[in-house]
Structure formats: structure tokens, C-alpha cells
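DNA mismatch repair protein MutS (Solitalea longa), 598 aa
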Amino acid sequence: MTEYYQQQLITSKTEIERFSQLINRFSLFRLGVILGGLSLLFLSFKFDNLLLSALIALFIIILFGWLVVKQTGFEKQREYFTARKMVLENELDSIADRGNIYSDGKDFIDDHHQYTSDLDIFGPSSLFQLLNRGATKLGVHELGHWLKSPAEVSVINIRQEAIKELSQKKDWRIHFQTVLVFNLKLDNDIVSNLHHYLKQPIEQHKRLRLYVKAAPFIFLSILICTLLVPKTSIFLLLISLIHAGLIVNNQLYINKTDALIGKIGKTLGAYAEAFKAIENETWQSSLCVHLTDSLTTGTANNISASIKQLSELIKKLDYRLNVYAAMVLNAIFLWDLKQVFAVEDWKESNKANIDEAFHVLAKFETLNSLTSLCVNNPEWVFPTVQESKKYLLEGKELGHPLIPKALRIHNDYSLNHECKIDIITGSNMAGKSTFLRTIGINTVMALCGAPVCARAMHISPVELITYMRIRDSLNESTSTFKAELNRLQMVLDLVPKKENAFFLIDEMLRGTNSVDKYRGSKAVVEKLVACKGVGIVATHDLQIAHLIQKYPSYIRNYYFDIEVRNGTMHFDYKLKAGECKTFNASLLLKQIGVEIDE
């Protein structure tokens, strides 16, 4: 994919330069039209021919207007390719160093969640930061929900099917991200503003609506009379004043509508492009087909056309910002009221469909986010997720997705239709914690429908419960040891209640003395055995590994080892069966100048 991104990036830069040159060229053309047009107009006055002067003026206006329209189109194209360049550069950064311009999901950090805080699911340098490609607030929240809540097997399978299809649509994905990336620069949530407006009751104004429809015909009739009978010009002034009075009298109503949606016209136009991209694509996967079918409005227009229509109506309402244009348009058409009524009519016709449409957009963003893992890491695989009465968790060459590929160590793990507790012992920094997080984070990815960092993975639905990072809390007046007890209580409460609980425990009871630590850890493991709990416990206490003698059919021992050569430690970070025999605390202390008596 790197080559594809680089080629597309070169194309985007070329297009940016091309449209920049066209914009500059047309700016000069406009200046030339103004200067040349004024010169021609000045010369035409010498012929004392009013018709000729009028024709020249009309030609200048038309030509200048055409140049403005063309230049505006070039500016939009430059904006598009600038956004596309940003998206492509971000994909290259993501592959190179896990960088990402999209949200890292820090708002979802929850120390009390069953697993997210321990497994780096949200926040800086997290799984969310790695895969998120959601620019809308709804898209970000949808992805957060998927990562916090494992899906059912049937849902996982249709998500995988959709992601596989999206992974083949490289150009579509980049275009889809490009038309939405502007959201990253917005301070307010445009979609929330629109939803708030749609919930407001529609004001009828039946008589006023009828008059607004008739107003231009009344004005035109009076204008014709004035041209035919100049003495009736007073009526033209009178109708203009009446229309001005109607606008002033309804200013509160007009301003309220403008305040709710007046600033989102251009933004809605971009959303329309995103919906159009979904509607115009040919889908094969059942989920993408279902989501696209959900965008039907029940009217002649599809969602993209409806959103575009609202965008254009809001732009027309914004004509009121030009004082001179507003005076003329309101005098003839009661323009402000005409556009507000048109917006209200749009709301009446479309309010039932818009909420669902933006949730569909959010789901496509989330699918696209998970697809980024697939296309940027082609060596990763989709896990086989299947229902099982017993636990199934098998992984071949499992690696941690947040560790750079060059530094990543892979391990196998197998829990094949069994109920077991695995005790992992090992030296400091040997890889115990990373292995637990590798199991955990790949499980989260598998159960939301994403590919996993492995050569192969088979898994049944499980509910992860973790005990890894323990933090004290000044706000909650909680010491480290109390925080440990609270987390441990959560594990012991949930494991018996959850039919498919799978726990990951890293070094229990760190906040107490070694004797109580061992006795407490031993008691916890035995309680987990008694309630037929399943999971992995990592510990420095070799005595915990001795529990295999008491529960030989339920406990398995694994370890991470080190090799000491000439006083230097060498880690291979590979999981092995059995108990750890080598420890390194004294060597580590010696490296910082602390000698330990033998």
C-alpha cells in the first residue's frame, strides 16, 4: 500500500499545483476583464449609443461572472486535493510510525471499564489512535462503542465481509476520507446542530406563506403599472415598504432559524458528497448493501440530494448578509421569509430520515477505520470466530499491534476447548505484561470484526476482564493498595457471573509485603479455580506456579526467560512451557549502582 499512497500523493500534489496556477491565471483574467471592459465602456460613451453601452456592460458582467464561477470551481478542486494530500500523508505516517491526525479516543478512557484502560484501547499511542479514520463525532463514538462492546458472532462475520470488500476499494476509501476530513478542523458539532434544529417544532404561518408565494407577482404587476403609468410609482414604494415591514416584523423568527443552521450550508455540501459516495458505489457485502438501502428517503430524492438541497437553501438564506442584495430581494420576493419557509418545508419532508442517515455514515466511517488495519498491514489476518460451549483461543505468531513491526516479537498460544488457568512466571522486563496485552488487544480486535496481528487466530466469544495497571486516585481518596483491592473485587465478582469470562491478571497485590502478597495471590488463584474461572495470571512469585501440583488438570505453567552472558542480560521474549529458573532483579539493581550481598 505504501507505493499506492506515494503514487496518489504525487498525483495530488501535481493537481494542487495545476489548480493553483489556474486560479492565479483566472484572477489575472478577471482583472483584465475589469480594466478592458471599463475602457470599452468609456469608448462606447463617445458614440452616444445607449444600446451599445448597455450591451458592452452586459457582456462584461456575464464574462466576469463566468470567470468567477470557473475560479470558484478551481478553488474547490484545490481544496479537495489538499484534503486528499492530507489523508494520504496520514496513511503513510500511520504505516511508518503509527502517527494519526484523527482522534485518539481519549474521551473514552475509563479506568473502571473491564479491559480498555489496561489494554491501551483509548488515548495516546492506543489502538484507537492506530485505526481511527472517523472524522465525524458520530463516527468516533461508533468506533469507541465497537471497541468497548464485543459483538455477536453473526455481527462479527458480516463486519469482516464488509471490511474485506472495502479493502479492495482503495480509491473509494481515500475519496470518502477526503470529503469528510474537514471535520477535524471544526470546533462545533455540525450534525448535533442539525439534529437540534430538526427537533424544533415547525411554525405554520399559513397566511404569510400564501402571501410570500404571491409577493413577486404583486411586485411585478405594480412595477409594470409604474412603467406604463409613471404617476403610480408611489405604489411601488408602498409595496416595498410593506415587504420591509413584514421582514422586520418576522425578524425574530428568521434569526432563530438562521442561528440554528445558518452556518452549516457549506459543511452540509461536503456531507452530501460523502453520502453520494456511498450511494453511487456498487456493494456486494450484506452489511454495506443493508446500510446503503437504509439511505432511501421515501421521496424522489436520495439522502445526498436532500442534504445538498438543504445546503443550497441555507446558502440562499445567507444572501441576506449582503445588505444591498437583501434590500432588493426582500422588496421583490420577501427573500428571507421565502428561504426560511423553504428550509422548514425541507425539514417536514426529511426529518424522519436524517438521523438514521448520519448513523449509517458513522458505521461506514467505523468500517473504514477497521479496514485501515487490513490494508496497511497486509500480513495480518482475519480471525475465525465461532460459537463454542468451551473456551477456544488459539493464536499462531500473535504480536502486539502497537509495537513497530521491526521490534515486534510473536508468540503462539492455545486454549482449545478447555477450562484452564495459565500461570506465567518470568524475570523483570522479560515480556510477561506485553504477552498478556498481546492476547487481550488481539481479542478486542477479533471480537469487533477487525483483522488481528497474527498468522492465524481462532476464538470463541469471551468477555475480557483485566487486572494490570493499578492507579491510586486522589479524587476518590483511593490508595494504590485499595485500588488493587477494588479491581480484584471486580474480577472476583464478574468471573463467576459471566458465562464466558476470560481474565488477564498481571502481578497481584503489588502494594503489600511479600508474605501477604504470596498468600493473597495464592488464595485468589484458588478461588478462581473453585469457580472454574479461565484466564492467565502473570507473576514473579514462583510459589504460585507450584499450584500445578494441587491442580494438575486445571493449571498450566509457562514462563519468559533471560540469558545472562558476561553479566549482560539477553531477552528473547518467547513463551515457554514450565517454570522460570532465572531472575534478574539483582543485575538490574547493580546496573544502577546498588550492590546486593550474595
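DSSP finds 20 helices and twelve strands in the chain. Residues 50-97 form the longest helix (48 residues). ok done for today
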